[in-house]
Amino acid sequence: MTASTLASAPPRTATRRPTISPRRAGWIRRAPLLPALIFLIIVTQLPFVATLVISFLRWNALDPHDRGWAGFSNYKAVFTDSRLRESVLTTIILTVSVVLISLAIGLGIALLLDRAFFGRGIVRTLMIAPFLVVPVAAALLFKHGIYNPVYGLFNGTLTGFWHTFGLGNNPPQPDILTVHPKIAVEAELIWQWTPFMMLILLAGLQSRPGDAIEAAHIDGASPWQVFRYLTLPHLRQYLELGGLLGSIYIVQNFDAVFTITSGGLGTANLPYTIYQTFFQAHDYGQASAAGVIVVIASIIIATFALRVVSSLLRNEVKS
Q1: The CATH number of the domain where 259 resides is what?
Q2: Pick from 147, 128, 175, 174: which is nearest to 259 by CA?
Q3: If we measure between CA atoms, which residue out of 115, 311, 290 comes closest to residue 213?
Q4: Which residues span the domain enclosing 233?
Q5: Residue 172 lies in a domain
Q6: pLDDT digits (tens, 9 = 90+) for 133-155
Q7: pTM above 0.90, yes or no
Q8: Nearest 5 degrees, angle CA 238-CA 44-CA 293?
Q9: Which of 122, 216, 244, 294 has a 20 to 30 Å separation from 74 between CA atoms?
Q10: Which of 291, 283, 287 shows the shortest CA–CA distance to 61?
């Protein structure tokens, strides 16, 4: 091929790929997720919308002819009815006490498990076990295996202690479910949720900056000073996260109240009262209104939990 032929040949043009608009590219990336999104909307959002609509209706199955628009009267009844108002107060007391005590005990256990000792892996696994128990099974275990006044572990231990130290022939046999029903429910929930708090706080302890802790020890700081001025501030967000996540689930707790006390003796929280209103009183409108209130409260708590999680992730990225 001569130079004149090369000069007269037309220049080759590069083949261009068809350009895709950013909007279309976004839809292409999201297309595989659409079936899951549609399924999630059908399973979760449509029932909630139906519950929201029913909450504004006057609908009692015992009086099928008196059905119609009720406005906000069902929501007003939730806060004015003494039974529902008491259940709201019980829910708050139950949630606050269980979360705070679980965090305190979980922090103590996390501090112990953060130390190196023989068999630490086995101990960690055993400490997580209560959280893995089915909630109904855990409630039954406490009701019959621990609280039973005849053959329960609590009274059996008390009797053995009484006879061992020669305190008399008639040891006390308290019926905990009758004398202290709220404490009985709280103790079961604390037993089950303490491992969850321990896991979160243990993760926080293992993310501490080791050089700062070592420098504090070299400077002569006591273990209490290290915990107060370094460990506790570092765990603040983990404590918040554990408290918020625990509150989300304990606010909605139904298994322990239903199984241990059946809502009696002032232990009926809002989810159990919703169950009574719906399945026993058959007042669908009022039960739906109470359910919407529980969902709104859970969403509010979850919003704060997500903010804490996002702040933790941002800190991890920065570090």
Answers
A1: 1.10.3720.10
A2: 147
A3: 115
A4: 81-282
A5: yes
A6: 999 999 999 999 998 888 888 88
A7: no
A8: 65
A9: 244
A10: 283
